[in-house]
Amino acid sequence: MNQPHLDPPEWYASLPTVYASAVVLFTDGSDRVLLVKPNYRPHWSLPGGVVEDGEAPHECAVREVAEELGLSIEVGDLLVVDWVPPGGDRPRSMANYLFDGGEISDLGAVRLQAEELEQAEFVAWEDAVARLPANTRRRIPAARAARRDGRTVYLPGTPEIG
């Protein structure tokens, strides 16, 4: 049985959609990870946010770092791509892109966006894992491995819950 072909606008409208976000990994001279504490949720995170319509993930990362930290950067390598299926309040899959931001030598250069963030702190890699929520914590060891091995890590599937 032949199905009629859809016109391009109808065909594109029929495709599934995915949410996307981008974050940046910064470390300091002691190889500690920069985390930020949003004022609108209880857990810490890496600097970053949701990709806007028509925006590339690396552009989102640059924009979010400028907004949240007051830093003008060029992101480095793509360290981690984390794909998470729909869950909880989120009805669609999420693709997160984690980029290397390099080293920040002076936390005093950071200007926190007061509307969204209440704190920024460098912490040990293990402490960063402990402070992140279960659905994002696996990105930290993956980013460390990606930096060490010089290759992007892909994290498919369902993350640890709890």
From TrEMBL:
One protein family per Pfam: NUDIX
UniProt keyword terms in alphabetical order: Hydrolase, Magnesium
Residues covered by the Nudix hydrolase domain: 16-145
Database matches in CDD domains: NUDIX_Hydrolase
Record has Magnesium as a keyword: yes
Domain of life of the organism encoding this protein: Bacteria
Transport listed as a keyword: no
Family classification: Belongs to the Nudix hydrolase family.
Record-given protein name: NUDIX hydrolase
